Amino acid sequence: MSSHPLANLLARAVERNRVPDLHAVVALHHGQVVLEHYGEGADFKLGEPLGHVRFTPDTLHDIRSVTKSVVGLLYGIALADGRVPEPHEPLLRHFAEYQDLAEDPRLAALTVEHALTMTLGLEWDENVPYTSAANSEIAMELAPDRCRYVLSRRIMDEPGTRWSYCGGASALAARLIEKGTGLALEDYARTRLFEPLGITRWEWSTGTDGVALAASGLRLPPHGLLAIGRLVLEGGRDIVPASWLATVLRPHVRIDEGFHYGYQWYVGDTWIAGFGNGGQRIHVSPALDIVVAVTAGQYDRPDQPTASVVLDEVILPALTQ
């Protein structure tokens, strides 16, 4: 653990069992690492047990749905390359293989932005445990054609009007990247995002079809997660266009919890974040010049407080005094 006073605060939280299953946390303030902690405990790779792990700076970790936020950045890079459609364009126009579905005018009206903002309005339920095929994301991954599965769901709400959590939306965006670039998602990410950021250790889990899981399959070490957050804090540098980041991080649709959703990122009044099952988190506070990366092992539990406690009871109070 680092020697900054924050380390003592976190140590007390660990001793009081306030942050159970905390695997790692790295915090950056004014460009300097002010907290770095590695724990130990049981871990999993998309549900497959990895046993008891002693976490280090090099340990790969599922980031689960923070993967979606990475896909949102990759879409902007591909858009700047002229490889993917503009957000306002109809989705099905770019899926020639599904033109039979375009006979439904409501489906034909779906846009790329509806996917990026999770406002497709489709019948989709990820409240069921991810161990069950009744979970829509799991059913999608088990389907012979993921994107056809997504686009074949019933429309329940007017597209663009209501946010509804949907891993299928991320799968559609990722497929557009692959179609437009001619590269597998992980290969495009490697050359256009990870290597420019100096991220050398990573994995992208794939489905039985060998295609990268765009909704939840990325594995990164803590500093890789931090590098993504720092990129966002610093306006994309020369990797992600600043204009795209501004669009990504604009509040597009309100979420029931009281904050908003941009393009595959959560947007609060003073923060931007990527959230992942189990307590995975990228937290960016631009006004405070803070980036925090958290990994944890609270997978599939109804209550996953560790990342929030690390932020709200340890890091943010100490750095905003």
Question: What brief labels describe this structure?
Answer:
alpha+beta; 3-stranded antiparallel beta sheet; 321 residues; single chain; 34% helix; 8-stranded antiparallel beta sheet; 18% strand
Note down, in words, how this protein is organized.
- This protein is of the alpha+beta class.
- The protein has eleven helices and 13 strands.
- The strands form three sheets. Strands 2-1-13-12-11-10-9-8 form an eight-stranded antiparallel beta sheet, sandwiched between helices.
- A hairpin with a 4-residue loop joins strand 10 (266-267) and strand 11 (272-276).
- Helix 1 (5-15) packs antiparallel against helix 11 and helix 2 (66-80) runs parallel beside helix 7 (167-181).
- The longest helix is centred in the N-terminal third of the chain and has 15 residues, at 66-80.
- The model has no long low-confidence stretch (mean pLDDT 96).
The secondary structure category is alpha+beta
- What is the gyration radius calculated from CA atoms? 19 Å
Mean pLDDT equals 96
Shape: globular
Stretches with pLDDT under 50, minimum 5 residues: none
Protein topology:
Elements: H1 5-15, E1 22-29, E2 32-38, E3 40-45, E4 48-54, E5 61-62, H2 66-80, H3 105-108, H4 112-116, H5 136-142, H6 146-151, H7 167-181, H8 185-197, E6 203-204, E7 218-220, H9 222-233, H10 242-248, E8 253-254, E9 260-261, E10 266-267, E11 272-276, E12 280-285, E13 290-296, H11 306-319
Antiparallel strand pairs: 1-2, 1-13, 3-4, 5-7, 6-7, 8-9, 9-10, 10-11, 11-12, 12-13
Helix pairs in contact: 1-11, 2-7
